[in-house]
């Protein structure tokens, strides 16, 4: 192993759980019903981390609220991928000044990727005095201990941020949002150092959880009625490489597929450089593996991909998509695209449009490049104006929306198996769910049951969703 893997012992986690009990006893004397709010920004990894924070808070006896005025503890789990998110987070933290004035006992904590950056931690120390606790991405497992430090001396502010290569902590309590769908982290960190991206700096090196821990968690989820498990990692395709057990992500998929029960396995995110024929064949052979892959392309220009350090060419990417579709004709492919990377010319951008037209993604998450300090791209000359970047972004979005709309329209008339996972927010419909390929469906039919697979006849579509009736 090239990096330092720090495994947190069972004893250390037990100590955190003992602290939870202490906090609960202390709260019992102070409140009739203590309330906490956990606010999450960013990706699914952060959602999964927030479930662990909620798990600890639940052990401390907290119930949850979405109202910052009544919360005794507020935890904001932050994202650093784009500047826009950071600005929004800081704005929202600043706005808590008035709730804290009304309730000076309120504890405000910040954690996650944004605060893991040194300049941000400094900024919060200096300019956001209302924040009592800041903990980095490697300290989540000891949140109870840090919270207790704040509680024991309300004049003290606690900052716990260490630059570490990789912490693995098993056995944390987990308060999941839904019993039907679950996030399951299989690995943490990233080694790819795409030149625009801050993630490798704030999340540390790639480290895989042991297969037996993952399988035990997946089995417990399925036995508890979970029907849809999404395996998470910044780059799941490099799963296992650091373990030296001769096991890769495709092997892991097969083992999870062997767990008895009716459920779906999804995963994200996949780096194209590590997506192999073996992975696609395994997906095709495993009946529980959803026919969906999120395969971020980022750009359709060979030069830009090189400058991004993505280590594949547009041709290689397209060949990969062709291979995947050959093995799974009904595969849904989604992607991420960055517009306006430093030095992107009009010609580079046209290459991206051409790739999008050629691949015809089912959906794409599109972003305007955001400069992240400390990354190599931040030092690259970037002469293109904001207006031009916005224009390119709008053109790309219009193209992709048209494609997404056409792809969705092609489902109309078909009967699809849908996992019903929530009530619909669309007035005309009763429930909502996801197809095997992950497409959102609003369903008419009062007899549908939450957490069950249902046959739905697709009767309409939009850019973002399908509409259908229970068969
Ligand atoms: N600017 C814009 N988009 C970014 N992403 C990552 N870093 C940046 C950045 N600096 C996008 C990538 C990635 C997705 C999660 O966020 O497309 O796949
Ligand atoms: Fe960032 Fe690239 Fe790692 Fe994804 S693979 S987290 S874009 S460095």
Q: Give the class-level CATH name of the largest domain.
A: Alpha Beta
**Cα-based radius of gyration, to the nearest Å:** 23 Å
State the share of residues found in helices, binned by percent. Answer: 25-40%
Strand order in space, largest sheet: 3-2-4-5-6-7
- State the secondary-structure class: alpha/beta
Mean pLDDT: 96
Instruction: Choose one word for the global shape.
Output: globular
Number of strands: 21
Describe the fold and architecture:
With 471 residues, the protein is α/β, with parallel strands linked by helices. It folds into four domains: 6-167, Methylthiotransferase, N-terminal domain (Rossmann fold, 3-Layer(aba) Sandwich); 178-290, 2-Layer Sandwich (Transcription Regulator spoIIAA); 301-409, Transcription Regulator spoIIAA, CATH 3.30.750; 415-470, OB fold (Dihydrolipoamide Acetyltransferase, E2P) (Beta Barrel), CATH 2.40.50.140. The protein is built from 15 helices and 21 strands. The protein has helices at residues 10-30, 44-59, 83-95, 97-102, 113-116, 118-127, 143-152, 199-203, 211-223, 249-257, 277-285, 302-307, 314-327, 346-359, 386-409; strands spanning 6-8, 35-40, 63-64, 73-78, 107-112, 133-135, 158-160, 167-169, 181-185, 187-188, 207-208, 228-232, 264-268, 292-294, 332-339, 363-368, 415-423, 431-435, 440-444, 453-461, 466-470. The chain has a six-stranded parallel β-sheet with strand order 3-2-4-5-6-7, sandwiched between helices. Strand 18 and strand 19 (440-444) form a beta hairpin. Helix 1 (10-30) runs parallel beside helix 7 (143-152), helix 10 packs parallel to helix 11 (277-285) and helix 11 (277-285) packs parallel to helix 13 (314-327). The protein is globular and about 60 Å long. The model has no long low-confidence stretch (mean pLDDT 96). The chain binds 5'-deoxyadenosine and iron/sulfur cluster. The site of 5'-deoxyadenosine has 12 residues, from strand 15.
